[in-house]
């Protein structure tokens, strides 16, 4: 199916709603039936029927079809957040006494799920260097049920070899899942490389306007159906029809936004790599990246997220650099129209919390839709303080 068809037409049966260009927001919790036979039939296949919005909703159903098609998946579920999507995907693949192998530097709430929540139910984990295939395979135990990837990771932008990881997992009979939020399906489609479950924080690129919290899980019909009747329906982490419509709106410009972010980030990272105040740039599509060949093999682009290591041993200098930036907003998340900065020195000296293990001179940037030369001017003057 052509990308333009998915983004602009797929799943939109316009004759059902007065041929309107934009699908309507079906803001109803409940749906009625004309007779008992129709009701019984719907109850027999609740995943594909419209009964109650906690399970399915016409506006959300359109979004599900589009997202599944984008990831070349058979089906999809949409959740109220990326954290809930990660949690549901993981929960669907474990049982009491199970073991999970997960890459280092994964999303913080994935880390919390594995280290604080699941151990209460006897589920253990091993964190591994995702760049080391031997270490990944060595970590697999007889009770391992899931290999959890995040490629690239969102802090230091490390990649995993998706085809090789899928082959290892299949050899041992375990399921693979990946957080694909960084690249979006425009730039990376893990199912094409043999991965079983693809997860997104759709809050980021998929919605793209910093106004909706949404999570996505794409996979086979079998896996999605099992997840729907267990985790999805039981825990009720749904998205509203109104938010689903906003994400559908966001998808219209997904390809354009991804390409713009990528082109701008390429220009800005090239500038930074040649700057004497920069120790290192982490960006998969930089020719200087040690994983550049792997990135080119399994990705079509890298979007707007990268990180740098400032050439300083002073946390005060890092803070001074941040305070001189005028055109980047301080915030978590990314994927919207606005450019952002997140200095990891923020996670030092927080009362009642341990310091992060990531270095204080690490600074993450997200490049949005602004003029890249305008942003470079700001970076250039801020770097003078280092």
Task: Write structural notes for this entry.
- A seven-stranded mixed beta sheet has the order 1-7-6-5-4-2-3, with helices on both faces. A five-stranded mixed beta sheet has the order 8-9-12-11-10, covered by helices on one side.
- The protein is built from 14 helices and twelve strands.
- 47% of the residues are buried.
- The protein is an alpha/beta fold.
- The protein folds into two domains: 3-251, Type I PLP-dependent aspartate aminotransferase-like (Major domain) (Aspartate Aminotransferase, domain 2, 3-Layer(aba) Sandwich); 254-383, Aspartate Aminotransferase, domain 1 (Alpha-Beta Complex).
- The longest helix has 20 residues, at 254-273.
- Helix 11 packs parallel to helix 14 (372-383).
- Helix 7 (162-172) links the parallel strand 4 (144-150) and strand 5 (175-179).
Quickly list its features.
386 residues, alpha/beta, Aspartate Aminotransferase, domain 2, Aspartate Aminotransferase, domain 1, 2 domains, seven-stranded mixed β-sheet, five-stranded mixed β-sheet, 14 helices
As laid out across the biggest beta sheet, the strand order is 1-7-6-5-4-2-3
| Whole-number tally of structural domains | 2
Second rung of CATH, namely the architecture of the largest domain: 3-Layer(aba) Sandwich
- Helix share, percent: 25-40%
**Backbone shape:** globular
Number of helices: 14
């Amino acid at each position: 199916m052509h990308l333009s068809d998915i983004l602009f037409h797929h799943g939109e049966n316009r004759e059902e709603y007065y041929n309107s260009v934009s699908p309507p927001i079906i803001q109803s919790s409940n749906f009625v039936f004309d007779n008992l036979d129709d009701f019984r039939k719907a109850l027999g296949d609740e995943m594909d029927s419209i009964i109650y919005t906690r399970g399915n909703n016409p506006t959300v159903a359109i979004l599900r079809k589009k997202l599944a098609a984008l990831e070349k998946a058979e089906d999809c579920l949409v959740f109220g957040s990326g954290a809930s999507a990660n949690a549901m995907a993981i929960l669907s693949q474990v049982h009491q006494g199970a073991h999970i192998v997960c890459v280092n530097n994964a999303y913080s709430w994935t880390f919390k799920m594995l280290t604080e929540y699941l151990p209460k139910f006897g589920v253990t984990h091993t964190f591994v260097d995702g760049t080391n295939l031997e270490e990944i395979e060595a970590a697999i135990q007889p009770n391992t049920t899931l290999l959890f990837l995040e490629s690239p990771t969102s802090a230091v932008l490390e990649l995993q070899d998706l085809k090789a990881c899928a082959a290892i997992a299949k050899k041992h009979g375990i399921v693979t899942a990946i957080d694909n939020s960084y690249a979006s399906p425009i730039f990376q489609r893990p199912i094409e490389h043999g991965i079983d479950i693809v997860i997104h924080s759709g809050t980021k690129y998929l919605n793209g306007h910093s106004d909706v919290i949404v999570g996505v899980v794409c996979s086979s019909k079998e896996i999605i159906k099992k997840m729907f009747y267990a985790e999805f329906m039981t825990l009720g982490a749904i998205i509203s029809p109104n938010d689903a419509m906003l994400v559908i709106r966001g998808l219209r410009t997904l390809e354009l936004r991804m390409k713009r972010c990528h082109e701008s980030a390429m220009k800005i990272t090239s500038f930074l790599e040649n700057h004497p105040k920069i120790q290192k740039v982490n960006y998969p599509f930089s020719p200087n990246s040690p994983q550049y060949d792997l990135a080119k093999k399994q990705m079509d682009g890298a979007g707007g997220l990268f990180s740098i290591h400032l050439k300083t041993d002073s946390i005060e200098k890092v803070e001074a650099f941040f305070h001189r930036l005028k055109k980047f907003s301080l915030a978590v998340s990314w994927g919207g129209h606005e450019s952002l900065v997140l200095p990891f020195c923020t996670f030092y000296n927080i009362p009642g919390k341990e310091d992060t293990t990531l270095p204080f001179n690490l600074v993450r940037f997200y490049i949005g839709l602004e003029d890249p030369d305008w942003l470079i001017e700001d970076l250039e003057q801020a770097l003078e303080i280092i």
